[in-house]
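Pasting two entries for a bug report.
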Amino acid sequence: MARARCAHRRGKDASAEQRAIGEINAGVLAARTERFAQWLLRLTSNNAQGEYYLTDVLSLAVSDGVPVVAVSASDPMEVQGVNDRVQLAAVERTLQRQAAQALLRDGVTLADPARIDVRGTLQCGKDVAIDINCIFEGTVTLGDAVSIGAHCLLNNVSIGAGSVVAAFSHLEDAEIGGRCRIGPYSRIRPASVLGDEVHIGNFVEVKATTIGARSKANHLAYIGDASVGRDVNVGAGTITCNYDGANKHRTIIEDDVHIGSDTQLIAPVTVRKGATIGAGATISREVPAGELTISQNKQVTVPGWKRPVKARR
């Protein structure tokens, strides 16, 4: 430890032999608190610089018969100092490179190991593939043969085997079943649980909702505070109107329901098993099982109507 102690000193205090040492003290010390307190009181500035050297506690420890052990860093970046944001970014890239290398060694396919950020814990099964610029936060678990498209953010998510998350999707505090298809541009918000073979397509948002196996919402929909059964098809433009300005209410959609495009489901409301809702409907009362329900105004054509024309300047 004499080497580590002296290598940290300025040239005026080090002998020629000590200056020839190639080891560098990283400045990390560990000992019992009461021992440190005793040694700090015994430090002196009796040196060429007139300074107090913290590393002098090592010689004090030896003189007190306390064992001193040196630990060498396997990678210099483990003890790299961070004094500004440039150095912080360099250390972060090193950490991310190590995480990427560990994933590659475990059999994960990374489209570009330099473009992945693991900011928590990422556990992967066999044959997982991750495209560029994906961010993993919290605890994320990917089952066998899961594929994550480019530019996705996953935060505290578990995804079952064989599922695909397409590009630009954001999943948070959610559980995704096996063989699902998510995205592109999908958002799965907290407290959402998707069963197996569920499809959530482009620009669809799901929040605090359970969705049964094989159900689909493929385009431009919002499903919030809902319980959706199996084999349900949600048409484009459908929304659950779950908020009345003060409280959230739930929508219940039972199995084998077909909801036409541009439907508003005003919660609290229940759609019974096997029901069909026509496009453009506004539903505020219970929909009976196995029936077609519509709420459409009669189409009217106004004779002689003329479209307004801008006045020429």
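Entry 2 (this is the one that rendered wrong in the viewer):
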Amino acid sequence: MLAYVLKRVLMTVPVMIVVALFVFLLLRLAPGDPAAVIAGDYATAEDVARIREQLGLSDPIIVQFFNWTWSLMQGDLGTSIFSNKPVTELILQRIEPTMLLALTTILFSIAIAVPLGTIAAFRSGSWIDRVVMLFSVGGFSVPVFVLGYILIYLFSLTLKVLPVQGYRSPFEHGLGPFLSHITLPSVTLSVIFIALIARMTRASVIEVLEEDYIRTARAKGQSEFKVLMRHALRNAAVPIVTVVGIGIALLIGGVVVTESVYNIPGLGRLVLDAVLARDYPIIQGLILFFSFIYILLNLLIDLTYTFLDPRIRY
């Protein structure tokens, strides 16, 4: 068990190194002068030289890489070109809305998708199964921003039961205002996530229901609910957990659009603002941060395999 955990942890190290190297080369090897691109069309030569000095672009590329790597090891992701603030500080200022939005989305999606997929598998071929599959196809087909504007029109402008935009911290404003502001963004972001998990849950449970030990459990007189929950769903959990990890990538990409639609001051808005302003240090820092979160979550998902299926330990 310990050897497996150490192996999985060590495997994340080269992945992070490759990601860091890619992010470093993304700015340095791009066509044109990065400093001139950041400075804009109307910048003077002094402005370009100042930005080159600030980014360390005047040094040889090997020196730049080692200096940048050393700064990363110290937790320094650079300094914003326009706000002149450390990128780490900007990320910490915006991390709460994004993390809470992601957490509520994941919890809501799993709570809805797993029961839906399980029921669809248990009633395979029925109208319930067809409705769940229709919802899954629709969930993949509707873009996030389109669904967001539809929900705003229905629940905010027409029914006037939820706020249109904004964010309220649960630590400052309480749980009620937080839930009222986070509901629509979470539902918007959850639809594609629910569709993905529900389809995988259905396929996995259907496959497990055809196994011999399911027939044995039924022959012993166990109830269908017990067979479904204790035997079928538990043994179908590994593919479901896998697709949850895949869905995290969709979640990270959807956060940028969702936070823009609902005007949430999170990391997604920070990404958009940095791209529009050509603030490359922020873009680099956010790519590294999102990559680290994605790799960490996938590591945790890999480790949960050992609890769901003990055979993986060997």
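Dev reply: Rendering is fixed now. As a check, the viewer should reflect this: The CA atoms of residues 120 and 131 lie 9 Å apart.
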